Amino acid sequence: MRAVVINGTRDVSVETVADPVLSGPDGAIVEVTASALCGSDLHFYEGEFPVSGLRPGHEVVGTVIETGAEVGRIKVGDRVLVSPVLGCGRCAGCAAGNPIDCTGGGMRVLGGDDSLPGGHAEAVAIPAADAWLMPVPQDIGVDNAVLLTDALPTGWTAAVRADITPGATVLVIGLGPVGLYALQAAQVLGAGRILAADRVPARLAMAERLGAEPIDGTKGDIVEQVLAATGGRGADAVIEAVGQDATLTAAISAVRTSRTVSVVGVDANFAFPIAVPLMIIRNVTMRFTTAPVASTWPTLIPLIRYGRLNPVDVFTHRMPLTEAAAGYRAFADRADGCLKVLFDPTR
């Protein structure tokens, strides 16, 4: 089959590789219908986490074509969501849909290392299939199904963990797909006012169309703009969806005293200096999160189905898998207004 391979910094190719095989009697093989690029993939692509020969891709939907003898809930022919974070599938954490709490071997990320090749491919092997695959309801289309495999659950979890109260002023820093879905999640959770910060005009315009007040980082310091907009108090909750030292620092400085900063942006700097005295004096809570994707599906699917949450269309580029190198390049460079790339593995 064909699969995307990251060979080194900004070096992507589509190679012919061996077809996936069952990981064990609890596993399944999924023929990929569509897969998307995520900002997390860029950490490998840009060399922040150096790799060679990695097969990436964790935002995946497809059809089950083979199951192991111990798989019971999932059937061949099922159109499924694939959880990008997985665990053993048997412990209490996994039973609750939260592989981050897995005690049977720990959390694994699809396409995160060589032991679990990712879904930017024609097919993918998924262990513990009953735990980490979910049949897609017929009223959920392919685009929303792909979004349910990472971007939407991560945005939702970011908002939930920000301790948003009805009527609160919420600041979202970073208006990529995750930030935009955090914005929409904050609205569902009752935010009265949302400030949306970024440096890209198209993203700021999209946030404004969704009902947020844009904070343009090219027109001055984000913190100063937020303080000016809130009478010097700061935001009641802050969601950081970028993952850079500067935006993490801004999030800490822009939050109101005794409130929460929720971080889902992945900063590759292991030595980031958190201003502990400032946080103690201001009584700030800071949460860092990997979304337990599978556990969000029972909440998010009804919200979408009944119109409480209408995920904004973020797929600006739809490309054949064979053009993955161009897709990665456009996504990394934000070329031609690229916000998110959807790959079609049949082409």
Mean pLDDT over the residues: 96
Query: Which architecture of the largest domain does the CATH hierarchy give at level 2?
Result: Alpha-Beta Complex
Strand content: 25-35%
Distance between the termini: 12 Å
H/E order of the elements? EEEHEEEHEEHEHHEHEHEHEHEHEHEHE
Principal-axes geometry comes out as globular
Main beta sheet = 7 strands, mixed
Any idea of the CATH topology of the largest domain?
Quinone Oxidoreductase, Chain A, domain 1
| Structural class estimated from helices and strands | alpha/beta
Please name the fourth-level CATH homologous superfamily of the largest domain.
Medium-chain alcohol dehydrogenases, catalytic domain
Gyration radius (Cα, Å) is 20 Å
Main features:
2 domains; single chain; Rossmann fold; Quinone Oxidoreductase, Chain A, domain 1; 347 residues; 12 helices; 6-stranded parallel β-sheet; 25% strand; alpha/beta; 7-stranded mixed β-sheet
